[in-house]
Amino acid sequence: xxxxxxxxxxxxxxxxxxxxxxxxxxxxxxxxxxxxxxxxxxxxxxxxxxxxxxxxxxxxxxxxxxxxxxxxxxxxxxxxxxxxxxxxxxxxxxxxxxxxxxxxxxxxxxxxxxxxxxxxxxxxxxxxxxxxxxxxxxxxxxxxxxxxxxxxxxxxxxxxxxxxxxxxxxxxxxxxxxxxxxxxxxxxxxxxxxxxxxxxxxxxxxxxxxxxxxxxxxxxxxxxxxxxxxxxxxxxxxxxxxxxxxxxxxxxxxxxxxxxxxxxxxxxxxxxxxxxxxxxxxxxxxxxxxxxxxxxxxxxxxxxxxxxxxxxxxxxxxxxxxxxxxxxxxxxxxxxxxxxxxxxxxxxxxxxxxxxxxxxxxxxxxxxxxxxxxxxxxxxxxxxxxxxxxxxxxxxxxxxxxxxxxxxxxxxxxxxxxxxxxxxxxxxxxxxxxxxxxxxxxxxxxxxxxxxxxxxxxxxxxxxxxxxxxx
Amino acid sequence: xxxxxxxxxxxxxxxxxxxxxxxxxxxxxxxxxxxxxxxxxxxxxxxxxxxxxxxxxxxxxxxxxxxxxxxxxxxxxxxxxxxxxxxxxxxxxxxxxxxxxxxxxxxxxxxxxxxxxxxxxxxxxxxxxxxxxxxxxxxxxxxxxxxxxxxxxxxxxxxxxxxxxxxxxxxxxxxxxxxxxxxxxxxxxxxxxxxxxxxxxxxxxxxxxxxxxxxxxxxxxxxxxxxxxxxxxxxxxxxxxxxxxxxxxxxxxxxxxxxxxxxxxxxxxxxxxxxxxxxxxxxx
Lengths: 471, 284
Fold this sequence. Notes:
The structure holds two protein chains of two kinds. By secondary structure, chain A is of the alpha/beta class. Helix content of chain A is about 35%, strand content about 15%.
């Protein structure tokens, strides 16, 4: 084996030029070449105690797959990853590796950690490009499990169970499988054909996907048991978007990030001649500082906005979005208005003509400047309004990206399903709810979180279901 | 894919389809809605369930051709398929305990009011129906309403059929004459529902209105269908897809709902014209 690559810096991943990509929906990051991947893999010291694996919610055998890359055995590397993860091409793109596996990497102490996420992405893409071998359907064990929702937690749970021989049916409310991976995360960060490919792989493992079925409406959880399913996993995702409760939020041109992103991603409003409309162009303010806010801002830019602001009430240090997404957004020209909080959205109103078609459309947003005060109970410094600091920004579109509260449909139709005071489904460490044989995970339990934590929850539940059904 | 079992043109712009969708037919109750997509690139539109046939597992929808999607839907014939059909969504109209009800329907809204009137009639409630249309050519479901109403007022704006005037006229007369309804249930254009509420207000009769705002997912995810209610002097945001579509008429901010309904008016006009042009090309 060649000597480890001791370069303190990791291999940069090629990206589309910022000024070009700001006007298209093609993927921003282009991925490593084989040479770059091997060179980066050589930076891994193959630590015996594998701290990186501890940082991974689905416990991928990271040093093992990186060793395979070092040998040039990319398919072998894929096989290692796929033992733990059902969605490697997705995770390699959207996981916050810098706070998970990479944060534990020994190489990170004196330099940059190994680019584990970039290597995972490389391996998954290599497999998807060059591997023609179809996954084989495991021998069935005769047990049937229903999965509610085809987002990251549901797909992971379904995949893990299918690999163990379960007959799994996934029920999806929308017309396409993938959940937040298709309606939420934009094409330029996660191409939809990659999600479709991962879903396809699950289908080949025998997973059935029933779209257009809303559990809690079309069928209830109790009916699923009557249909012969022995366990149910609820991964129904985040729910209703939050609004600030300030005047003007019902004006035309105010969106929740969920709506804006769903129109663009799922309904393909970004195409030249869409059937689903979206407000394009003009000046756009996105309120919030999470990854969803970054996605909304960068989508607005690509839809032709002349100016896009991120309005966030704390400072850059507290901004919850991934650093890489923030950097990409800044490079593309998105302006961060930090320590700034909206107090009112302003709309056009022609006092002389109530039928003026411009009436009721957004014209601007009044904000106040903030400063950071004492830390709150979670240790984050609380933003405090600076008196007399009011100002107005001229905008045509406002996108509220300040979180969601769990979907009410399932809890309202499932007797005995305990929820907490925020509406999240209560589960134990195995993902088991207060109902027998009903498991849950992902945003439906935790409220808005990451793709990988949802996948982790799906994995835990799959294991528990497998143990409970006696295999 | 979901098969169109039957098609009937009710008037020049209103069409009735029966769509085969067993799971939806098993569950749907009056007041609930479905969301459909005509084809792979289509938008998602909500339509209220106008009836169900559990034996053949079909759901009836009645729609007015107003935009690109409804235009495209109107070209499909029995035996053809639509891409997606999901439901039933929303909360069913609360009918329990109602003994004497006035149903006020306007235009294509009558199609939504119809199954509610039928359900009330089947429950043994006394049903007074006031249905309004612009003119004689646009009248739909007259026989059906007659069959389930104890009293029927059929109104046309221009007096070309039935009584002349809009739906609030007979409603006001009845209320002034001392009629006591447990509930007025009104479904139709926002402006009509707003005036039905205003007409009932002096008499304090409860009014349920059925809201049909712009929606995408219909399952409580996007928030596009939000509307503002004034509840005991407090402004509250509700979502028509999961909290509705029925609301207490006295609480709804109709002006805001009307404004939001016009958000994509320009876009819809263009889409409609494009659909028409597409059709012209196909027949040529």
